[in-house]
Amino acid sequence: MLLFNKKDDRIKMNNYYRTSDMIKLLKYFPELSPIENLTVIESEKDFEDNKDYINTLKNNRVDTLKTKINSMNSDNKGIGESFIEIFKSIKSKDEDAVLVLFNTMNEPSERYQRYAGISIGVELGEYVKIDAVGKGFDGREVSKNMYTHERYDIPWFELRNITIENFKKYRTYLTSQEEYEKTREERINYLTNIGFSKEVVEIEVPKKYMEIPDFIWMDIIKNFLKVLEKEEDILRMDGLLNFAISGHTEGKKYMPWQLFDKSRAGV
């Protein structure tokens, strides 16, 4: 078992695709990440030796080594499965697979309850591009480049001037109702297929597109865009010249889980 708060373990954890993404966000933008107690389970013995600790962790992702093609599906379709059952399943497909366990600082909402899913691409010193999907969606669609409802293109030299009052002038795309309805249908089908009630989802995912609220953009301006400009020199020294973060909102805050750059070969 590997623990984030142990330096030697943290070095080993960086060998895994999604775990290293989560560590990068914790390092450079700690105010954004909701992750606590980041832990990697490598064997069934880890479960046997650390039962009490593992029982305190509520969330999971699957992962594998960066030295191989990442075949691990990030979508958790095993609703109701125990961690050990998920672990055994992924190990049967990939002997190097691991289970990533953690808690979040907030109580997680249901996937159809969130205000937005948002992916932010950064070309250091050049520009910031934001792709977002609205209420009832999450980071899945934008992180996989499936579709977007709102897009913003911000030149780097404009970062210091951005306020909530002028933010919308950087919007380059807003979905039409016709296009939105197509994505809504796909979203409802996806959520139903992974175990959510279709009746509930059809009520929760709006029939008419609702623009992402200003309080979400205010949070991103304050806790990412303004911090990003101040951290430019540090990011450049560490070789993070182009990278992206993606995730969803929880309540009125943007809470992405990961930051990835070109060194991340997997998806």
Helix residue percentage: 25-40%
Return the average pLDDT rounded to an integer. 91
Radius of gyration: 19 Å
Task: Work out the strand percent.
Answer: 15-25%
* Distance separating the two termini: 24 Å
> Which stretches are low in confidence, meaning pLDDT under 50 for 5 or more residues running?
75-79
Q: Give a count of the beta strands, DSSP E runs of length 2 or more.
A: 10
Tell me the strand order in the biggest sheet: 8-7-6-5-9-10
**Shape by Cα distribution:** globular
Order of helices and strands: EHHEHHEHEEEHEEHHHHEE
Largest sheet: 6 strands, antiparallel
Counting helices, strands and paired strands, the structural category is: alpha+beta
Number of helices: 10
Can you summarize this structure?
The chain is an alpha+beta fold and 267 residues long.
Description:
It is globular and about 55 Å long. A hairpin with a 2-residue loop joins strand 9 and strand 10. It has helices at 7-13, 17-28, 44-49, 51-54, 83-93, 139-143, 177-193, 198-204, 214-230, 232-237, and strands at 2-3, 35-41, 59-63, 98-104, 117-123, 127-133, 150-155, 171-174, 242-250, 253-261. The strands form two sheets. Strands 8-7-6-5-9-10 form a six-stranded antiparallel sheet. The longest helix has 17 residues, at 177-193. The chain has 267 residues and is α+β, with helices and mostly antiparallel strands.
